[in-house]
Amino acid sequence: MLVMNRQSAARRRGRRGVTMIELLVALAIISIGVFGLAGGATLVTRLTGGGTIQTRAAMVANAHIEQWRSMTCSSVSSGQDTVRSVISQWTATSVTSAGSRRGTSISLTVQYPTTKGMRSQVYNTILPC
């Protein structure tokens, strides 16, 4: 009976619980995972914000082009505009063929702010007369 009690006591001592080192290793692994998720969430937030301003700039450019299409060729002229932090600059030139006006060529540059500074996008179109 005494032998059994010593073996049982030795087994109980070997399985008392989690050691401090095991706890620290588990905590380090969990911390790395949590920091990785936080970094990923930050990146997704930044990319989503960048997509929003790019969409706004494209919508401003589209609005300008649609406005010009509704006008006559002679009334379209060069200019600039700022809408919701999107700067638009355009130049309009006549397109002629065999001495007669065939259309208006428009080059539109749209500038918008990003986290790395201003970014430009260029749109070119020709409006038939």
Give the tags:
129 residues; alpha+beta; four-stranded antiparallel β-sheet
Textual characterization of the structure:
- This protein has 129 residues and is an alpha+beta fold.
- It has one domain.
- Helices cover 49% and strands 34% of the residues.
- The protein has 2 helices and 4 strands; from the N terminus they run H-H-E-E-E-E.
- A 4-stranded antiparallel sheet has the order 1-2-3-4, covered by helices on one side.
- The protein is rod-shaped and about 110 Å long.
- The relative contact order is 0.11.
- The mean pLDDT is 85.
The parts where pLDDT drops under 50 for at least 5 residues are: none
Q: What global shape is seen?
A: rod-shaped
Q: Compute the separation of the termini in Å.
A: 110 Å
State the order of secondary-structure elements, H for helix, E for strand: HHEEEE
* Spatial order of strands in the largest sheet: 1-2-3-4
What class would the helix/strand composition place it in? Answer: alpha+beta
Total domain count: 1
Helix content: 40-55%
Beta fraction: 25-35%
Give the total of beta strands.
4
Number of helices: 2
